[in-house]
């Protein structure tokens, strides 16, 4: 198993003409990360799912939750579940397995893919404001076959969609207190959350996901 402790800064955004924060009814209940239907493959913004050709939820398998890329037309951007506040939490840990062919960024296929990158979003996330989506810092890591573990300290270095970082301790603590969705993004090229495709049938399996 390859284990990465995350350490440098990369940012990402998501395009949408007039994004808005979801209503309480749209947010749905808090979920168990061991259950496939708790996870959303998206993002879904204003009713539009930006992960084209993918199901809304991973497939529940014997050893984890499978995100499949059956054709090059399938692309996945954000994968997250409703956790709720991260106040008092210290660590996010994810184990996963990559199988299959070459992954490429949707918007810059000539560049290396990057991900999964652990992230969280606040309950008032409107998909355009700084301080509402946060990614843990890490060295650029291409999506390649193998089994991996990510360990992210919630007291470590994180960055938001523009210029804000966890060096602004008050803003970061406020964001963690208002956290809602937790998960990871896939991308590369012009953004960590701008999605990837795979040249041949491939998959990413979430073996475990813990918020401690």
Number of discrete domains: 1
CATH first level: which class? Mainly Beta
What is the second-level CATH architecture? Sandwich
CATH topology: Jelly Rolls
Question: Could you say which overall geometry the principal axes of the C-alpha atoms support?
Answer: globular
Secondary-structure element sequence?
EHEEEEEEEEEEEEHEEE
Tell me the name of the CATH homologous superfamily.
Galactose-binding domain-like
The first-to-last residue Cα distance is 21 Å
Q: Name the structural class.
A: mainly beta
Strand adjacency order, main sheet? 1-12-8-16-6-5
Low-confidence spans: 3-13
> How many whole angstroms does the radius of gyration measure?
16 Å
**Average pLDDT score:** 91
Strand runs, count: 16
Q: Tell me the number of helical segments per DSSP (H or I, 4 or more residues long).
A: 2
The proportion of residues in beta strands is: 35-45%
| Largest β-sheet summary | 6 strands, mixed
The level of helicity is: under 10%
């Amino acid at each position: 198993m390859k284990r990465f402790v995350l350490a440098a800064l990369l940012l990402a955004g998501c395009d949408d003409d007039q994004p808005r924060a979801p209503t309480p009814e749209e947010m749905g209940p808090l979920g168990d990360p061991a259950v496939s239907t708790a996870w959303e493959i998206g993002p879904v913004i204003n009713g539009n799912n930006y992960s084209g050709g993918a199901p809304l939820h991973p497939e529940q398998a014997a050893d984890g939750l499978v995100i499949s890329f059956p054709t090059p037309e399938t692309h996945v951007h954000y994968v997250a579940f409703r956790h709720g506040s991260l106040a008092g939490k210290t660590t996010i840990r994810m184990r996963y397995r990559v199988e299959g062919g070459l992954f490429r960024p949707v918007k810059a296929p000539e560049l290396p893919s990057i991900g999964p990158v652990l992230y969280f979003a606040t309950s008032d996330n409107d998909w355009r404001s700084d301080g509402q989506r946060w990614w843990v810092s890490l060295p650029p890591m291409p999506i390649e076959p193998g089994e991996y573990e990510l360990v992210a300290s919630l007291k470590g270095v994180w960055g938001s969609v523009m210029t804000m970082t966890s060096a602004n301790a008050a803003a970061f603590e406020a964001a963690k207190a208002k956290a809602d969705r937790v998960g990871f993004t896939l991308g590369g090229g012009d953004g960590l959350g701008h999605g990837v495709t795979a040249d041949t049938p491939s998959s990413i399996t979430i073996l475990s996901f813990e918020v401690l």
